[in-house]
Design brief:
8 helices, 12 strands, alpha/beta, three-stranded mixed beta sheet, elongated
């Protein structure tokens, strides 16, 4: 009985596999018979950052799209098209596929910038929330915190900022600023020296905030919030020119 039961189970499994293979073969055969009907492009978060639009994505596909309509779908290498689109620095991810009606569907997710790298001796760049370094765009300027100083040369040479330990800490610091409503409105610029020491400049007030290395950001921001919410309202916003957060357990203001 056990042998019969086992044999029946194996026959069912083999039959199921054959059915699946048949469906795949039928789908592939049908795909070869289908002509390209249209191209549909969907861009995620395009309203948040306008680095690329639909026309740009069509250009990245590198296809003669007038001749493409009516061509056999099987003749179009969608994987190559997807690879070309993903090579664009502004694009975080892309999927290119065809539906049963013969439409080529392109889904694109743009990278979100969280900081702009600025320098006097060359082109600027952006740091995306996933750490990638992107070029600037002639189409769109993102309103994000600025990064300047001797450290920016190193950043612009990297594909992603988190290639180094200081870069990882910097990325976490930038995310912390962006995700906090108070700091996102307050911090305007980070000047980073060649040793990764950070001086911050605020939107309101003339003080230089000596943040130091981008480590222990929670503790340093906690001290800085005390300075902004408890000290400055009593003393005055233009009283101090320098605030140092690098000493453990204290705030030094001059």
């Amino acid at each position: 009985m056990k042998l019969k039961f086992k044999l029946k189970r194996e026959i069912k499994i083999i039959a199921a596999v054959l059915v699946i293979l048949g469906i795949i073969a039928f789908t592939e055969r049908r795909r070869g018979e289908v002509a390209v009907k249209d191209i549909t492009i969907k861009i995620e978060n395009v309203h948040e950052n306008h680095f690329l639009d639909e026309a740009d994505v069509r250009g990245l596909m590198q296809l003669n799209q007038e001749n493409l309509r009516g061509a056999e779908l099987e003749a179009v290498n969608l994987k190559d098209v997807e690879k070309r689109i993903k090579a664009e620095p502004f694009i975080k991810d892309a999927q290119v596929y065809s539906d049963l009606k013969g439409n080529v569907v392109v889904n694109v997710e743009l990278r979100r910038p969280i900081a702009r790298i600025v320098r006097n001796d060359g082109p600027d760049g952006y740091i995306a929330e996933d750490g990638h370094v992107m070029p600037v765009s002639e189409k769109y300027t993102a309103r994000v915190v600025l990064i300047s100083g001797g450290y920016v040369r190193q950043l612009l040479k990297q594909k992603t900022v988190d290639e180094t330990e200081e870069g990882k800490q910097l990325l976490e610091l930038l995310k912390a600023i962006r995700e906090d409503e108070f700091w996102n409105a307050q911090i305007a610029q980070l000047d980073i020296d060649s040793k990764a020491g950070i001086t911050m400049f605020s939107q309101v007030g003339d003080e230089r905030i000596e943040f130091g290395k981008p480590d222990n950001p929670e503790l340093k921001f906690k001290k800085l919030k005390i300075f902004y919410k408890e000290i400055l309202p009593r003393i005055g916003w233009n009283k101090y020119k320098r605030v140092n957060l690098q000493y453990e357990g204290q705030i030094v203001a001059e």
